[in-house]
């Protein structure tokens, strides 16, 4: 089932499944940002989600979808970011083991976060080949189920639950905007909105400096990201087969955003809304600031993907 | 009426009066900070209030308490901080003029904020004598009503509405903690809690480097702040006669907090809760981190006073 496109039914089932574990995050509004963009914005704040990012939704749906027998053998992934922390926490909540393959070069703070949630960290050389070989070894040893960060139907369905909550709480949205990296959030959002609020368009927002999803949609095939260089470091990955298939079918448009607009949007969000969001989460608002979408009076939902950021290295303080 | 101690009835009337204008701010919890302190913390987030601080509550209560005839002559204050912005916005909402006396040396960004809310700014030399003389001139010219930032019964009652909402939403708190500078927030909080949740203690938290309220309570007289030097720049002022009288009667204790604990608390709040708070707002959590209050399992409400901070000059990024 994990390589079949999920439907709205799976997103609704995911919402039920993760309800005891995930936060129902608030939807915030900000008259200052409305004035700045001309739109009426509704921010679904996944920066307040457990582990500080929407990733917990997909990981929790995957872990709690496992049969008892599968669960006993644990879960595994290779990731050094939010997905690893999310999978570690979800596994701990189910009382099973999580094995996380990380490059030796991963920052200490990231290792500590994952270890803090009780996962076993398996270090490897910092190449994709080494990561994949090490993950295969872990699976051979343990029988753990691999949970991919985005190209997995259970993960996509879980990510869609944020938008499901948003459209359930805020009726008559014209558009829902979500950032796109590997496409798990955007494809889950698209399935949820198509099913639960069919009059609402779903638009992806991507850094112009990492515009592989934009190109993929235009060319009708997965165009890999080549040397992406953006401050939005959660959006460096290329689409997967599943996420591309969903995006192609259900996403109206992908718009691209300059680095300057991403930084400006991040700063405006901190200053006006008083919330900490990571650069990747600022990409949708950046698109609005650059006029990439019609704004005047339109009701636009924005999925704020996360708030994990190095407070000692903020973009507006760099020399 | 403005120099008589307000009662719970005035706080309740203030809540009714400002309801159409002020935000009812959310109460947030954070398992990470609970684990760090051992307490069960409930954060009343006035950083999400209009103008980014609780100050809007008091200013709005003062402005909307005026008779029509008083209101027509406008309001005035000397302040360069959150109170000036709050008074300017409240006056604009009532459709009357606000005159704000500011020193010529006030930062451009502060002037712009106040001017942005439509107030008339009157510049003066940067001394207390010049401010007071200039304010007196403004009042002589216009007949405007002076609204003091804290030593005013209408302002104190307005500030108390944040705690009134908190204890109404979260029952059985053991303690409510609020920062103390001039004492408007702490005294309003004390009146609200004594009236609406009499089993709950109210404790003030003050920077050790600006501990004039702590000394005032100990000595039984207002001890002025002498050369206070704290990062919590909202807490530099000394108590007023009204706020001291209330604090003496209704506040159980004032605890003092080191600069290191204030910075650590601010950073933990940003990192764990993903909200932007100003240094003054971190003082209560700093007290918990330093073990200044019994914590184990106790339910503690924290008034988070505001979120106006210079993002380009954060304490953990200073050389």
Question: What is the strand arrangement across the widest sheet of chain A?
Answer: 1-2-10-7-8-9
- The shape of chain A is globular
Q: How can the largest sheet of chain A be summarized?
A: 6 strands, mixed
Total strand segments of chain A: 10
Q: Estimate the strand proportion of chain A.
A: 15-25%
Q: How helical, in percent, are the residues of chain A?
A: 40-55%
Q: SS-based structural class of chain A? A: alpha/beta
Number of helices of chain A: 13
Classify the fold: give the CATH topology of the largest domain in chain A: Rossmann fold
| pLDDT averaged over residues of chain A | 95
The greatest interface between two protein chains, and residues involved on each side, is: A-B, 19 and 19 residues
N-to-C CA distance of chain A: 49 Å
The CATH first-level class of the largest domain in chain A comes to Alpha Beta
Outline the structure in words.
The first copy, chain A, has 319 residues and is of the alpha/beta class. Chain A folds into two domains: 211 residues, Rossmann fold (3-Layer(aba) Sandwich), CATH 3.40.50; 91 residues, Rossmann fold (3-Layer(aba) Sandwich). Helices cover 44% and strands 15% of the residues of chain A. Chain A contains 13 helices and ten strands. In chain A, the strands form two sheets. In chain A, strands 1-2-10-7-8-9 form a six-stranded mixed sheet, sandwiched between helices. In chain A, strands 5-4-3-6 form a four-stranded parallel sheet, sandwiched between helices. In chain A, strand 3, helix 5 and strand 4 form a beta-alpha-beta unit. In chain A, helix 5 runs parallel beside helix 6 and helix 9 runs parallel beside helix 11.
């Amino acid at each position: 089932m994990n390589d079949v496109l999920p439907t709205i039914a799976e997103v609704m089932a995911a919402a039920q499944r993760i309800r005891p574990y995930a936060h129902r995050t608030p939807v915030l509004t900000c008259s200052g940002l409305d004035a700045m963009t001309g739109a009426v914005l509704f921010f679904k704040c996944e920066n307040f989600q457990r582990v500080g990012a929407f990733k917990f939704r997909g990981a929790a749906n995957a872990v709690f979808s496992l049969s008892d027998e599968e669960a006993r053998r644990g879960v595994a992934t290779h990731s050094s970011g939010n997905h690893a922390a999310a999978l570690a926490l979800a596994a701990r909540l189910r009382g099973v083991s999580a094995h996380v393959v990380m490059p030796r070069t991963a920052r200490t703070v990231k290792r500590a976060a994952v270890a803090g949630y009780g996962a076993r960290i398996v270090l490897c050389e910092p190449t994709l080949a080494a990561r994949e070989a090490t993950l295969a070894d872990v699976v051979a040893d343990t029988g753990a189920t691999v949970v991919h960060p985005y190209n997995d139907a259970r993960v996509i369905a879980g990510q869609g639950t944020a938008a499901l909550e948003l459209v359930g709480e805020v009726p008559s949205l014209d558009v829902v905007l979500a950032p796109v990296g590997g496409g798990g959030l955007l494809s889950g959002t698209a399935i949820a909105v198509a099913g639960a609020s069919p009059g609402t368009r779903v638009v992806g927002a991507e850094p112009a400096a990492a515009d592989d999803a934009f190109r993929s949609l235009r060319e009708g095939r997965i165009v890999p990201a080549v040397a992406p260089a953006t401050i939005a470091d959660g959006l460096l990955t290329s689409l997967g087969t599943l996420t591309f298939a969903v995006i192609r079918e259900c996403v109206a448009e992908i718009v691209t955003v300059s680095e300057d607009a991403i930084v400006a949007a991040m700063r405006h969000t901190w200053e006006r809304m008083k919330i900490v969001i990571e650069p990747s989460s600022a990409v949708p608002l950046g698109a609005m600031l650059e006029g990439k979408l019609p704004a005047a009076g339109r009701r636009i939902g924005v999925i704020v993907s996360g708030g994990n950021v190095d407070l000692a290295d903020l973009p507006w303080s760099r020399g």
